[in-house]
Design a protein that fits this description.
3 domains; 47% helix; six-stranded parallel β-sheet; binds flavin-adenine dinucleotide; 416 residues; alpha/beta; Serine Threonine Protein Phosphatase 5, Tetratricopeptide repeat; Rossmann fold; DNA Cyclobutane Dipyrimidine Photolyase, subunit A, domain 3
Length: 416
C-alpha cells in the first residue's frame, strides 16, 4: 500500500528549487500538501497595536502564491492555527507518517518546527538560503561578526548546491485556496507584483535576458524611481515563490551568455547579505528582538509620549524632512521602498528621532510586500548600531542623501 506524507508549505511557495518538495516526491508517497496561516501573522506589537504583523498587500501577495501552487498541484489544503496542532489533526485524518517542510529562520518559525517535531516525524530541508548551512566553512554559532569577513570566508570555499528540479506527485486533496480579488494598486508602484511562482519567473527573465538590466545593476542599484534600477526579486524571495539557488543559477547562466561583470557579481553579493541575516537570525534566536541589540550594547530607548509622537509623525510621513516623508508615503501607498529609501528612513527614526528600532521594524513588517523577518530585523539592527557588528553610529544624513540621490527633487515631488 502506498504511504502518505504531508508537505507543509511555508515561505517556499514553489515547486522548483524546493528540496523539501523534491524529497517528498522522491519518497514515492501520496502527498497531502497544506498551507497554514500561523497565529503570529496576526499578532500586534506594542508599537503598532492597531496593525496586524501581516498587512493587506502582503496578505494578497501570499494568497496569490498559494493559489498558483494549488492550481499547479491540482489540490491544496489551507488551514489556520498552530502548525503542530493542525498537522497532528491532518496526519491522523490522512494516515500520514511523515511531514516535509523548508527550514525557517525567524525564532517563531524555528519554534513552530520544534513543536511539530515533538509530535510528528518531521523532515526539515534547507531551501530558503543560497548556501546550505552545512556547507559553511564554520558552524552557525561561530558566524563571523562582520558581513565582509563572512563573505570572504564563504567565497573562499564557494559551494552552491544544484537546483532541485520540479517533480510531480500523487496529490488527491480538494482545492481550498481561494481566488484572490486584486486590491487597488497604486499606479506609482515601482513594478508589477503578483505572488505566483510564474510571475516570479517572469520578473527573473525580465531583469536578466529581457532587459539585461542585470548588467548595469551596480551603477543603478541606488535608484529611487522605476522598475529596473534594482531586481525587485525581494517579494518573491520572501514568500518563497522564487528560490535563491534558482536565482543564482539564472545569474550564472546569464553570465555565460552575456558576460560576467561587477554588476552580475553584485547581485550575488546582495544575496549573500540575505543569507547572512538569515544565519544571524538562526544564531541569535529570540535575542533578534532584544531592544538592547544582539550584543546588549545599550538599553532600548524609552517608549514614552515623546517617542510615540515622533513615531506617529514618521509613520504618517509628516516629520518635515522631505526625503524621509517621501519615503514613508511611498511605503504606505505601495508596500515597497528602495533600499536607499529604507536606509534613510530607518536611520532618521533611530538616530534623529531617537525611537526604538523595533517600532520602525514593526511598521515595515506590516507594510512591506517583501517582509522577511531576518532581513528586516537584521537591517534595522545594523542601522541602529545594535547588530552583530555594533559599530556605534550608522547615521545617514537625509539632506546629504537627498542631494546625492535625488538632486533635482524628482523623487520627493513624486511622493510629496
Ligand atoms: C531598514 C531595512 C529593512 C529592510 N527590510 C527588508 C525586508 O523585510 N525584506 C527584504 O527582502 N529586504 C529588506 N531590506 C533589504 C533591501 O532593502 C531589500 O531587499 C531590497 O531593497 C529589495 O529590492 P530588490 O529586490 O530590488 O533588491 P536588489 O538590490 O535587486 O537585491 C537583490 C536581492 O538581494 C537581497 N538584498 C539586497 N539588499 C539586501 C539587504 N540589505 N539585506 C538583505 N538582503 C538584501 C534581497 O533578497 C534582494 O531581493 C531592508 C533594508 C533596510 C535598510
Amino acid at each position: 500500500m502506498t504511504s502518505t506524507v504531508l508537505v507543509w508549505f511555508r515561505r517556499d511557495l514553489r515547486l522548483t528549487d524546493n528540496p523539501a518538495w523534491h524529497a517528498a516526491c522522491a519518497s514515492g508517497a501520496r502527498i497531502v500538501p497544506v498551507f497554514i496561516e500561523e497565529p503570529w501573522r496576526r499578532e500586534r506589537s506594542v508599537w503598532t497595536p492597531d496593525l496586524p504583523a501581516l498587512g493587506p498587500r502582503r496578505e494578497q501577495f501570499i494568497a496569490e502564491g498559494v493559489f498558483a501552487l494549488q492550481e499547479a498541484l491540482g489540490g491544496l489544503l489551507v488551514r489556520k492555527g498552530r502548525p503542530a496542532e493542525v498537522l497532528a489533526v491532518l496526519a491522523k485524518e490522512y494516515g500520514a507518517e511523515r511531514v516535509y517542510c523548508t527550514a525557517g529562520h525567524a525564532p517563531y518559525e524555528v519554534q513552530d518546527e520544534s513543536e511539530v517535531a515533538a509530535q510528528l516525524a518531521l523532515e526539515v530541508h534547507e531551501g530558503g538560503t543560497l548556501l546550505h548551512p552545512e556547507d559553511l566553512p564554520f558552524d552557525i554559532v561561530d558566524l563571523p561578526q562582520v558581513f565582509s569577513s563572512f563573505r570572504r570566508k564563504v567565497e573562499k570555499r564557494w559551494t552552491v548546491r544544484p537546483v532541485a528540479e520540479a517533480r510531480t506527485a500523487m496529490v488527491d486533496v480538494p482545492k481550498e485556496a481561494a481566488v484572490v480579488q486584486a486590491g487597488a494598486v497604486d499606479a506609482r508602484l515601482a513594478f508589477p507584483v503578483h505572488g505566483s511562482f510564474q510571475a516570479a519567473q517572469t520578473r527573473l527573465h525580465h531583469y536578466l535576458d529581457g532587459t539585461r538590466a542585470l548588467s548595469t545593476y551596480k551603477e543603478t542599484r541606488n535608484g529611487l524611481l522605476g522598475s529596473d534600477y534594482s531586481s525587485k526579486f525581494s517579494p518573491w524571495l520572501a514568500s518563497g515563490a522564487l528560490g535563491p539557488r534558482e536565482t543564482y543559477a539564472a545569474i550564472r547562466s546569464y553570465e555565460g551568455r552575456h558576460g560576467a561583470n561587477d554588476s552580475t557579481y553584485w547581485l550575488i553579493f546582495e544575496l549573500l547579505w540575505r543569507d547572512y541575516f538569515a544565519f544571524v537570525a538562526r544564531q541569535f534566536g529570540r535575542r533578534l528582538y532584544a531592544g538592547s541589540g544582539l550584543r546588549g550594547v545599550k538599553p532600548a530607548p524609552k517608549w514614552n509620549s515623546r517617542a510615540q509622537r515622533a513615531f506617529a509623525s514618521w509613520c504618517a510621513g509628516e516629520t518635515g524632512q522631505d526625503f524621509v516623508d517621501a519615503c514613508m508615503h511611498e511605503l504606505a501607498a505601495t508596500g515597497f521602498l528602495s533600499n536607499r529609501g529604507r536606509q534613510v528612513a530607518a536611520s532618521y527614526l533611530v538616530h534623529d528621532l531617537g525611537v526604538d528600532w523595533r517600532a520602525g521594524a514593526a511598521w515595515f513588517e506590516h507594510h512591506l510586500i517583501d517582509h522577511d523577518p531576518a532581513s528586516n530585523a537584521g537591517n534595522w539592527l545594523y542601522i541602529a548600531g545594535r547588530g552583530n557588528d555594533p559599530r556605534p553610529v550608522r547615521r545617514f544624513n537625509p539632506e546629504g542623501q537627498a542631494e546625492r540621490y535625488d538632486p533635482d527633487g524628482t523623487y520627493r515631488r513624486a511622493w510629496a
